[in-house]
Amino acid sequence: MKVVLYLHLHQPWRLARFRYLDLGSGRPYIDEARNLDIFRGIADRCYRPTLARLADALDTDPDFRFSLSVTGTYLEQAARVAPDVLQTLRRIVRTGRVALLSETYYHSLAFLLPPPELRDEVELHRAALQREFGVRPTVLRMTELAYSDALARFAEAERFRGMLVEGWEGILRGNPPTHVYCAAPAPTVMLLARHYMLSDDVGFRFSSKQWSEYPLTAEKYVRWISATPGEVVNLFMDFETFGEHHPASSGILEFLSALPRTVRSTTGLAWATVEEAVNLPPRESLSAPTTVSWADQNRDLGAWLGNDLQRSAFEAAKKVGILARKAEDAEILETWRKLLTSDHFYYMYVGGHGADAGVHQYFSSYGSPYDAYANYMNALMDLRRRALERISG
Amino acid sequence: MIGWEWPPSHSGGLGVHCFELCKELTKMGHRVTFLSPFPGPYTPVDGVAFRCPADEPEEPYPGAYAIGGSPGSWHEGDIEHFNAWIAAFPIDDHQVIHVHDWFGTVGATELARRSGRSLVMTVHSTEYDRSLGNPWREILARERFGIVRADRVIAVSEHLKRQLVDRYAAPPDKIRVIYNAVRPSERLAALSGSTRIVLYLGRLAAMKGVDTFLRAAARVATREPHPLFVVAGEGPEFGRLLILAAHLGLADRVLFLGKVTEEERITLLASSSVFVLPSVVEPFGIAAAEAMAAGIPAIVSKTSGVAEITDSVFTVDFWDIDEFASRISELLEYPALRRAMGEAGRRSMSREGWEERALQTVGVYFELVSGARK
Question: Which residues contact B312 (CB under 8 A, 6 or more apart)?
Fold first, then answer.
């Protein structure tokens, strides 16, 4: 059985406090210094130590291979404050055993907009990967692992060989996540379904002392993998699982280091990249009339567009998008795209209680969803004003 | 219970607190004797008996004189007289003595000592706060006396508790935080949100920061369609604020209503879009809590105690006029925000009833009464 480890690298450009009274002031919407500070901190705790261990594993274990997605906004920030992180990324990609994935440059909600936007943003991202790594990916992942029939058709039109999906009952309909599938409306597009139980054992539960399986060792984890029937186990998680969500003191980095050799020494298991896994024959075709994602208990778009604030902000952003294109000003269009980054909408999630609310609060850069909304709308309204000025000449 | 103001003639949180607390206590079957320096009128509550020094037919205290009038017309001699009267009050089957703020602390302490009863003191605000850092020594001394001598001190927010520990050296383990609550206002929720009225409702005292409200108004007022800013309440700052409003060119944009009746208060809340409480210090902020309970999104200063019990409120540094102006504009300009915050605020305040607060207060009484029996 193939073991597919896929890690997601992303940092958004968070907004500065942009007050209503700042409309028309020419102040920047993005607080670059603050974003870069956050990046530096995570680079120290997570990116550097985790990449070092992954690079080590690649050097010492010729069978180890994994997959990575890196957003454009991540690359921009890394280039500014952590060029060594970029160097390491280039080096491991050169081994040929690290597959990169395509997605939108801005980690955006462009897939919910009228056609040219999504293609443009995926193309921007492709160009960035070509420039940085000299690589052209063949597998697509959409923001927050969003997937639908419409996206499968898009992937087909863009000649992608595969897409990642959440291994959720709503889409698998009784099938296990451990086969390769193809998209019902686009049979040339293979689907790799995230094994969310095994992925979240590491992503969410690893450092939880209340968990009955605590502490999780590589041996135990690989035993679970090898006891799972099927052709492929897809372990998809946030890169920041290692050293950030779970601090180094939890032993997560040692766990990661031990994985490659433990998999190798287990009969019947072998590492594969997403590009290799999509070569496996598909078992069934899957259809997804509505969008599924990897977020929250509902696996829908509720985390970004679940409440009135989020929907109202997104509708407003859509309208400003029309103006931003019309303005024919590269800077205005780029700024608008940064405002489409899904994280901004995520911050407007109104929690209440429960596990999801805790996760949202952890990731938010605002005191409350109302803060997040007001600030976002101010920036968007200012951009709208600028676009209109440009259009009217 | 030893208080100060009581409806209908109350101007701040203390009066509302005593009234609502006594209503709930008597509903639970407790009886309260309320000692007030003023001869009334008192809005009656079943189970609450009112006493004041002016009730006494003769003058049993040497040097005492009749007390009347309003809190504004008080003299130092009145305070001493009131405390002497409290100290000599005939204790019957009263189990606990509960004093609110500094005014009656000396008499209450003596009464507790003489009768062997426990003393609870609720602190609604401190003299440091009311005077913006220039406390009147006499008041400070009475406040400190009560805080030190009381068996339990109730603070209306965590923020206030920290102050009592830091500034009054009160032992933290005898302080209990019991927040203020809100009166139910279902009727209001149905009416609100249709106009562009920005409301301040509260006393016009220096600690309330109404200047900030007016200065923020001046930065918002020019936008179309013009919002109307309403200042409801009375107090020593009235004249100065009126002049400031004129000076800021807000003569036709700000409405000073003076003191409002209960009915007017309800109408005001029902027709406002945004509530602002820009206090320099605000141990709790019942007015903001009640506005939120009515479904009106509120903007309060960061130190307000009410912000400890809800996230559905904008908090701003009390000196940050631009931020107040921006928050007001955002709530006026973005209806989705106004609706979402209004609704969330209403929901969060619906959990904050006086019954729960009275139960918590009785819990403090029981700690003492059962402790005394051991």
Answer: A368, A370, B292, B297, B341, B344, B345, B347, B348
